[in-house]
Design goal:
single chain, mainly alpha, rod-shaped
């Protein structure tokens, strides 16, 4: 039925034959024409002029009264690398049985076309876009803007989807209470740490409510147990965060009133000084590099200055200053310490270097270490505390 000219600026196809088939041909004739025009369009050797010349006929076939013809055309064009946008959108607007298989495989979708289909399409078409390995960030934007939970799940399940921090925040804010989506979010390796922190707090509140309602522990014990677990989880998440993202995560904590003196004390007692550095930098409104200079320099006055500027209670200062000393000495001696060794050195530093501190005050500081450090260090702190308590 077809004759084509290659490498010509103008098409030499006899398109009147196509018009005749479309106007007067049988369903079978139109299906045959759809297949042949599909082959011509998919053939990389087809001249561009010929490819343009058949677009009006592809559109007419895509709008044929009979589904058999439309399906035949969609199937024949499924592998076309280049396809007119109007043809693509017309096929996608057809019945699901025709549109969805085509939408799942056609390579003729660029970022603009994907985003347009996601914006105006129904859930079924959003899902097909969400599952595509070449989905673009703009298409993800449009899918998430529609707010469909099932589509959000599909995007999270697509390992090749170009998800950024804003996408994750949108999904969490819109669907964070839905178990299926929350499970997928927490499983995602690129999930921003501030979302993990917020979810840790949410989970701790749920556990606290459950344990309290069922009377498994006294209320005071529940509060302390849950607070300890939540703070340790948050600190561990922060400690594993990329330095470039740590400042943002700490700022989120501050916005949620979660950047507390207790959190910084616990981080110091556990040896996670990167968390202390970021926390003090945020509270003092200075850069992390400047905070490090003030914390680990040889001037005790500068260390005290950053603690005052951060607005931390005086009762927090001795432990934080001792932790700064331990961290500086470790850096000077090129030592790597785990949390337990850091805690042991913290106690030693407090006992030896802070000789001007009264025994009563040392008891109070050791009480903090006995609450916030790792378990072996807590035991040591409690024993030392008992000795000083007797002397006091």
């Amino acid at each position: 039925m077809l004759g084509k000219a290659k490498n010509s600026a103008e098409s030499s196809l006899d398109v009147t034959v196509f018009d005749a088939v479309i106007l007067a041909g049988t369903i079978g004739d139109r299906c045959q024409l759809a297949e042949e025009l599909g082959r011509l369009t998919c053939d990389p050797e087809t001249a561009e002029a010929d490819r343009r010349a058949v677009v009006p006929h592809l559109l007419k076939l895509a709008m044929d009264d009979y589904a058999e013809v439309r399906e035949c055309l969609a199937r024949s064009l499924a592998d076309a690398e280049e396809l007119d946008a109007d043809v693509v959108f017309t096929i996608v607007a057809s019945e699901d049985e025709i549109a969805l298989p085509f939408l799942a495989v056609t390579p003729a979708l660029d970022g603009w076309r994907m985003a347009a289909i996601a914006r105006v399409g129904d859930l079924a078409r959003q899902l097909e876009i969400a599952r595509r390995p070449d989905i673009t960030a703009n298409a993800v934007d449009e899918i998430l803007a529609k707010g469909e939970a099932e589509a959000a799940c599909a995007v999270l399940d697509n390992r090749l989807a170009p998800l950024n921090a804003e996408h994750f925040h949108i999904i969490y804010e819109e669907h964070g209470n839905e178990p299926a989506i929350l499970e997928r979010l927490l499983r995602h390796r690129d999930l921003p740490v501030d979302i993990r922190i917020l979810q840790a707090r949410q989970a701790s509140r749920h556990i606290q409510r459950l344990v309290t309602e069922r009377g498994w522990l006294p209320p005071v014990a529940v509060d302390e147990l849950v607070a300890t677990a939540a703070e340790e989880t948050i600190i561990n998440l922060l400690a594993e965060t990329d330095p470039d993202d740590l400042a943002h995560a700490v700022a989120t904590l501050a916005d949620k009133e979660m950047l507390t003196p207790a959190l910084l004390l616990r981080a110091a007692c556990l040896g996670h000084m990167c968390v202390v550095e970021a926390g003090l930098a945020h509270l003092a409104a200075i850069s992390i590099s400047r905070a490090q200079s003030m914390m680990y320099g040889r001037s005790a006055m500068r260390a005290r200055a950053i603690l005052r500027r951060a607005g931390l209670p005086e009762a927090c200062h001795p432990i934080l200053r001792a932790a700064m000393t331990v961290e500086r000495q470790a850096a000077d001696e090129d030592l790597e310490m785990d949390g337990e060794e850091f805690g042991r050195q913290l106690i030693t530093t407090m006992m030896i270097e802070f000789h001007a501190m009264s025994d009563r005050e040392r008891v109070r500081q050791l009480d903090h270490v006995g609450r916030f450090a790792e378990e072996p260090v807590r035991l040591i702190a409690r024993r030392v505390k008992a000795d000083f308590a007797k002397a006091a």
